[in-house]
Design brief:
This protein has about 100 residues and is an alpha+beta fold. The chain has two helices and three strands; from the N terminus they run αβββα. The chain has a three-stranded antiparallel sheet. Helix 1 packs parallel to helix 2.
Length: about 100
């Protein structure tokens, strides 16, 4: 099903692709996520990077899309610098408040 934000997501993804950042923004329902080839998560039995999604916890709107684009650039820079840590983005299931 199409969403009014989809054409804007496509434009942002074209910019990300032109910059060769290796990440793209996806709309999953009413939320935004990033997808790209990332290092294995801690505890994974994989040894090499593979396609993964990072949920951004951002609603699917134009303001959040700008934030998602900036986050994609930050993550791409961290991947290049080899300082990316997916633990910064993993949803913690058992948080104690």
């Amino acid at each position: 099903m199409t969403h009014p934000l989809d054409p804007h997501i496509n434009k942002v993804n074209q910019r990300l692709k032109a910059a060769r950042l290796g990440l793209k923004i996806e709309r999953r329902g009413d939320m935004l996520a990033l997808r790209g080839t990332l290092p294995p998560r801690p505890g994974s039995d994989r040894y090499h990077p593979y396609q993964q999604r990072i949920p951004l916890k951002l609603p699917a709107n134009k303001t959040a899309l700008k934030q998602a684009e900036q986050e994609a650039k930050v993550i791409a820079a961290r991947l290049i610098e080899q300082t990316f840590d997916c633990r910064d983005y993993i949803v913690k299931r058992f948080q104690i408040f």
